[in-house]
Amino acid sequence: MNQAMLDNSLWRNIYCVLAGDSAQCASRDYSAGLLPGGLEWLAFLLAAAAIIGLVINGILGGVIVLIWGERRLFGRFQSRTGPNRWGPWGTLTSVADAVKTMFKEDLVPADADRILFNLAPILIAAPALLVFSVIPFGVGTYVADLNIGLLFIMAVTSLTTLAVLTAAWSSGNRIAILSALRSVALLISYEIPMALAVVGVIMLAGSMSLGDIIAAQGVPFILVQPLGFFVFFIAAMAEMARAPFDLTEAESELAAGYLNDYASMKFGLFFLAEFMAELSTSAIVTTLFLSGWRGFDPIPSQFWFIAKLIAVLFVIIWFRMTLPRLRVDQVLKFAWKGLFELTMINIIVTAILIAIWPQPTTGQLWMMAAINWPVAIISIWGVSKLLGTPAYDKPQPTAEAPTYPVASESIPAGSVLGAEKGGD
Amino acid sequence: MAIKTQPVTVNLGPQHPSTHGVFRMRVMFDGEEIVDVEPIFGYLHRGSEKLAEERTYTQIITLTDRMDYVSSMLNNQGYILAVEKLAGIEPSPRGVWLRMIASELQRIASHLVATGFLLQDLGALGTPLIYAMRERENILDLFEMLCGARITNSYLRPGGVFMDAPDEFWPALDRGLDDIVNTIDELETYLSGNEIVFSRTKGTAVLPPELLINASITGPMLRASGVDWDLRHRAPYDYYDKISFERILHTASDNYARYWVRVQEARESVKIIKQCIEQIEPGEVRPSFDEVPRLIRPPAGDAYAAIEGSKGELGFYLVSDGSIAPYRMHVRASSLINLTLLREMLIGGQFGDLFVTFGSVDLNMGEVDR
Description:
The structure holds 2 protein chains of 2 kinds. By secondary structure, chain A is an all-alpha fold. Chain A has helices spanning 3-7, 9-19, 40-77, 93-102, 114-130, 149-171, 174-197, 199-205, 210-216, 221-224, 226-239, 251-254, 264-289, 301-322, 328-356, 362-387, 405-410. Chain A is globular. Chain B has a single domain (12-21, 30-35, 57-369), classed as Orthogonal Bundle (Cytochrome-c3 Hydrogenase, chain B), CATH 1.10.645. Chain B contains 15 helices and 8 strands. In chain B, strands 1-2-3 form a 3-stranded antiparallel β-sheet. In chain B, helix 4 (93-122) packs antiparallel against helix 14 and helix 11 (255-279) packs parallel to helix 14. The longest helix of chain B is centred in the first third of the chain and has 30 residues, at 93-122.
């Protein structure tokens, strides 16, 4: 029975209701538990199972809603209706899709390595769910508040690439392997700016625990750390391979990349994991930069968290709907030459500011924001000048532009129709 | 330690989301760089040219619709010009103006489709494509007013068109032209200044003009390299000599230039249609059946007529033996000929640019395979 579990109010409430007036709950005024005395171990297990079930099902339900919402938004962005047939405003479309996916034939290619092929969907779904175990959804609404929460998130999200590589290799498909190689290149390049971008946040909060980071945000860190937010958001988009970084799926190039040979619910798991990654990325951005569940009374903290989450999701979907895809070399160049420099600038500036104000109060955070914003704007402008594609000197030549003499001069007008051979 | 590597060959198509139909490529690539490309086509071959030998001259119009199915009106026009030349038919003026309006509208539709699909190949998830297609729908609505059909129009006949435009067509056309200009402005604000579009298309798949001319490539691909070659200007057919329009040229000859030329040409087509509306006069839309019978029997001989199609020079070569059906029909399919430089464009490029370059050719498998 460790302290981290006890600190979790959700878990503790269930445990104390079951176990009653045991040593850990004595101060909490639980007179009689549901279970007889001596069965604290059973209460422990039941409470843990309840929390796991609650979070997993909550996330999956959230994903179903997200898929519906994303498709509706796609429709709006593309000036069409979007799904609107099943249920009110098409809300049951995702459910119908899920049922359809489950009943599809489960195909396995003849060349596939069956064990790895079946393992990959599990490998990709598990880390996507694990991320949620450290995210505080509201006051006391979390599974565990690890003191290395941010490090845990970094480690777990990187596992996705392993699953992609497993899936691609085991399907025995060359296009899939190309997609997996791209995925690894993306991971290696974007993990570094992503990790460096949160260094500023860790310095300001003085902790890697997500609870402490939220507690430190008297001013949302998006205002104090604009450069960190910018880099983290882009790197997170690249990490989960969403447009404009969707190189691994690249529908117009690699068809579906590593998903090529998956069918039925195995494909469904990949699909779910993709949306769970979108959800978890938004949750992390909300926690690190938008002050998580903090808001003002009387609106409950969970509502604030979800409202900010939806705002971030909207921006991610907006990006996806609007921008074309970057090429692999451009994506890597952007990470190493652009984002890496920006994170370095951010770390140096933040370190100096922390040296001036070691324990920043809210007022000092505002002053940091006032210093950081001009730095962010100038450095982003500088990097865009450095990496941007220069326009054509004179992009709009008219008919007087240089013409190539051979074709334009030697073939007289009128001869193309071959007048002398026509059968009048 | 040196790692031993070897190029990998993959098959792309005919079932692939961005092969613009049923094109197939056997691509050999080393990492992300393309080493070799072997184009394979023929999956949509329907034998249109052979079928034409079994049909009367009027029936063949329906076959031409189905060749390049995103620019049926232009196909009709090319074929009709060849028949008129073969049989010596003098078209009636109103019919000619109407078919010029129809074919310029079709050119806009075709360029919009090309632009939309190019952006789709660039990885934009459908949004620009749907914006372009929405405008194409308006053009197809105009076609529906003209002839009742939207895609396989068969609107043109030897000597003109088969029926006059209804009264409500003209105000709808005026509105439609304004909408087209607005849509192109919208697309251009969205895309022409977009850093991702620009960085991905600038300097990719550059072709020198000499190579383009030697490969007899025509259309926007050629004009994007700075060669001023437009059959509407060089060898005017129909009444294009009574129209003044600007020839759109770009000198970069890369994927961006090809995209840019198409968008600007769509703007020019709007101006051409406006001039047509000014000059059109009431009258018969086709000669009477005494002059041009339903069953045309051209004298023995041959004729070649070419128009500036949406993808390049679209030519029809007809040989007559004096019967009701042509002895031989051959189509100079611009899509097929524009494909000849595909290897030169792709080899040495990035795998990610493969379908962008392919899309910038703007080919239509219905026309390639016929």
